[in-house]
Sequence to fold (175 residues):
Amino acid sequence: MKNNFKNGVLSFALLVLIYQIFSLNFLTGKMMFSEASTFSWEETQLENDYLDIQNISDVSGNSDGTNLIATRNGGHIYLSQDGGISWVERKPAGDEELSWGASAVSEDGTHFLAGVLGGRLYLSTDSGSNWAETGPSIGTNKNWYSAAMNFDGSIIVVSEGWGVGRLYLSTDGGG
Fold:
């Protein structure tokens, strides 16, 4: 089972890369995206143009690129459900600006996961409308470096980064 899950996560990540390639330009603060079939890039803007998006730390999406999440170091998170045309700011932890790191999206676009660097994981099971704190043990802060989930968000894997080298696996949707 573990090898099948590992291969599934790698296959999912490869599909995301094949169908939708993302690039963040940290010098200009622009987020760029391209459909692999066109080999061209378009700039996309977050909903609040006045925000400094130079601190975008992670971007994840499903394989066709319609459901996207961007995490911001020193701010909030942003969701797009139209392939990056429009973005909506979300505040899973309230108004507090946090250093967001890892992100993941389920293939069906109903589950979004975002991790705080030196903090907690937050999960939405209703397409980003509501968020709940989750993780290996409530109250435990980690540096959430990367994340992935399966089609419906029932299997989630997250990594604790920067030299720690730990993976955490949930087979019950983060519950």
